[in-house]
Amino acid sequence: MAPARSGNGGVQSLERAFELLERLADTGGEAGLSELAHASGLPMPTIHRLIRTLVTLGYVRQNANRRYALGARLIRLGENASLQFGTWARPLLAELVEEVGETANLAVLERDEVVYVAQVASRRHSMRMFTEVGRRLLPHGTGVGKAMLATLEPDQARALLERTGMPAYTEHTHTEPAALLDHLKTIADTGYALDESEQELGVRCLAAAVPHAPVPTAVSVSGPEGRITDDAVRRMAPAVLRTATRLAAQLAQPPPPE
Q1: Where's the IclR-ED domain (predicted)?
Q2: Residue among 141, 127, 152 at smallest CA distance from 217
């Protein structure tokens, strides 16, 4: 029997399976079948059949409390997708470096951690990099992390901070959830975040979230605080925001016609 087709020509069961995976991701943890039915609007028998298949394949797991969560098999797919994302973003990062003269980074939020997926180093300044591709950090102590947190609903951001904790990397790191949540409102208003020696002393970072990205994503420029002055921030911020917007436009491009 031929698989049922959706209105856009796709395979309906495949579309529904991915919808359930996204609904599970939106919960931030786990969900029961009735919650998935309410969120997706799909009939319970359909959800039960799809979930059973996804569990068998390892893309969903059933916890001891009989609720469902994303499975470990998705980790490899997500990590490879992040690296590919970084690869095609590098030309835009290179243009940003050329414009501002400082190292540019791209990071995504993965399993409550900031993961750096691309970097283009400045050729104007010969000094060590403060981050490297593949490095994982907690979001509260980084410019890119704070830019991402500012795109979340306050209750989502608070829940993430409760899960990760807020250890102090330097004396400038935010360690109180309430104070950081207030700070995130300012970031949302200005459109960009600053890391003021919060991850590493003497290092300043200017970061902006990529709007409407499928997962929280941010682009940044970083360098020593002696160069990333307030005047430099005012000069660089439009370029960083423009790069974030261009990245969003690339992500939104429709697939080529078959």
Answers
A1: 73-253
A2: 152
- Strand (E) positions, 77-170? 103-110, 113-120, 136-137
Q: Is position 258 within any domain?
A: no
For residue 1, tell me if it sits in a domain.
no
* Residue 201 and residue 237 in one domain: yes
Tens of pLDDT, residue by residue, the chain (258 residues):
434 444 444 578 888 888 888 787 777 667 888 888 888 888 888 888 888 888 888 888 888 888 888 877 776 766 666 666 667 788 999 999 999 999 999 999 988 899 898 888 887 765 555 677 778 899 999 999 999 999 999 999 999 999 999 999 999 999 999 999 999 999 999 999 999 999 999 999 999 999 988 889 999 999 998 899 999 999 999 999 999 999 998 877 654 444
CA distance 106 to 93: 8
Q: Looking at 71, 98, 115, which one is the last position of a domain? A: 71
